[in-house]
Design a protein that fits this description.
11-stranded mixed sheet, alpha+beta
């Protein structure tokens, strides 16, 4: 990699994408899912009161423009209590944690959960590797037309094992919005893979990359990454940013290996800190 992106830039890229993905939902969808959001301390706290997946209530982007303090964590926890969420996850780069983090998290009942790995790629390097592997995928990848937004969003949620009521409406609302660039993978005329990218300044945040089980192992995920990398290059981005689960012993994370093959590098591993109201 030509130079290293800062943890602050990487974290803000992800935080802003998640904020805009959830808050772009129509008001009717936000009401059904119980979506609300709070900008605080330079980061964002996302709340989804009626989320049956336990995925969408997250607090992230902290430590980038203001220090992480006991008061800040307390304010975010109060927000989650007021929103009546069953639980939430704090995601903070290890480089941005305060020296007294152990005491702060203990005071607010944050417990250690799984870890994610933050990945970054130089756009030009990723495109060069994508061009070198051109033709390896058996799926066709193209930008998503507005008329296909609902079908695309439904495929995304099915690929991630999420409900097909309301959640696809949230995802579909981003298609065509400024900064968002949705792509789909097709196999024999059927939409079988999804991926979008949120472009903000020099960063392009990968989001929602998935392929339905019946169409996997055909190079579709790599093709979706490549298409979004080329788009980011055309838009003048310098960095691609992504996240996936840390590969545990005995596991094989296909998403991780697909990104590594396309030039992504591990920037750091980041612990998920779980909050539940009864733990405080």
């Amino acid at each position: 990699m030509k130079s290293v992106i800062s943890p602050e830039t990487a974290e803000q890229s992800e935080a802003e994408a998640l904020y805009r993905f959830e808050t772009a939902a129509p008001q009717s969808v936000r009401s059904v899912l119980g979506i609300d959001a709070l900008r605080i301390g330079g980061g964002v706290a996302m709340a989804m009161r009626h989320d049956v997946t336990g995925y969408w209530s997250k607090a992230l982007g902290f430590g980038c423009t203001a220090p992480i303090t006991d008061e800040l964590i307390g304010a975010v926890c109060r927000f989650y209590r007021e929103q009546r969420v069953a639980g939430a996850v704090f995601q903070v780069s290890p480089a941005l944690l305060p020296a007294d983090w152990a005491e702060v998290r203990a005071r607010h009942g944050l417990t250690a959960g799984s870890s994610w790995v933050k990945l970054v790629a130089d756009v030009d390097e990723a495109v060069a590797l994508a061009d070198a592997g051109e033709g390896l995928s058996r799926l066709d990848v193209a930008p998503v037309e507005l008329g296909d937004a609902g079908m695309w969003a439904s495929a995304m949620m099915r690929a991630f094992g999420m409900p097909e009521e309301s959640y696809p409406d949230m995802a579909a609302a981003t298609v065509g919005l400024p900064g968002w660039h949705a792509h789909a993978a097709w196999l024999d005329g059927e939409l079988v893979g999804t991926g979008t990218v949120y472009v903000r300044g020099e960063t392009a945040q990968m989001f929602g990359g998935a392929v339905l089980p019946a169409a996997r192992r055909r190079g579709g995920q790599t093709a979706l990454l490549a298409a979004r990398a080329r788009l980011a290059q055309k838009l003048g981005c310098r960095w691609l940013v992504a996240e996936t689960g840390v590969e545990q012993p005995g596991e094989h994370n296909s998403s991780l290996h697909n990104m590594l093959r396309l030039g992504f590098e591990r920037l750091y591993e980041r612990r998920n800190w779980s909050w539940r109201p009864e733990q405080e």
